[in-house]
Amino acid sequence: MKLLVIAASGGIGRWVARLARAQGHDVVALVREGTPYRPPEGVKVQVGSALDPSALRRALEGREAAISCLGPQRVHPVSPWSRLREPLRVAELAARALVEAAAGTGIRRVAAISAAGVGDSGPRVNAPMRLLIRKSTIGEMYADLGAMEGVLRASDLDWLAVRPVTLFGSRPMRRARRLERYRAHSVVGRADVAEWLLAAACDPAPAAERTPMIGWW
Predict the structure, then answer these.
(1) In sequence order, what are the residues at sequence separation of 6 or more whose Cβ sits closer than 8 angstroms to the Cβ of residue 134?
(2) CA separation for the pair 201, 135 (Å, rounded)
(3) Against a cut of 0.85, is the pTM above it?
(4) Which helix H or strand E contains 197, and what residues bound it?
């Protein structure tokens, strides 16, 4: 399949590009100018901003599906109280640019990264995480991801936004599954999230579930 991977230089994006090539897909990776990125063999790199509809339109040319691994980030990633990196509302703005750019192209499916606790999954999150969402900049990040989901929901795209629980680095384990609750011990590896996104993007059937919460347990 002919895929575009947006934010391919990130922790999940790198795995998406790597796994997609391993499965024989034709992959274009969109990365920002100046971003260090060594693509897997066979992955074509296009430099441009995910917030620029023109750059996205060029990257989408000839593609069948897009996988967006873009999301808000903190200046100090380990601190939940760190301010967010500019530009603010990056997930929402990128979604708006993608919807605009996809008009008139052959794109049929968009798969994006969201987070467990966003939108209607909020009540299914453990109490410590709900407190962090209310008291830290995680709440701002989740508001941005919720707005991104809203943009995709209002579009004509066949879309889904995967909501993983707590992320950490791991080789592919193929253990990710749908979860009903985000417990204090719930985790999932980035490679398994990438594998889920890839499978969702390449599924020929319309997306049956728009915002699945996934994890190992």
Answers:
(1) none
(2) 34
(3) yes
(4) helix 190-202
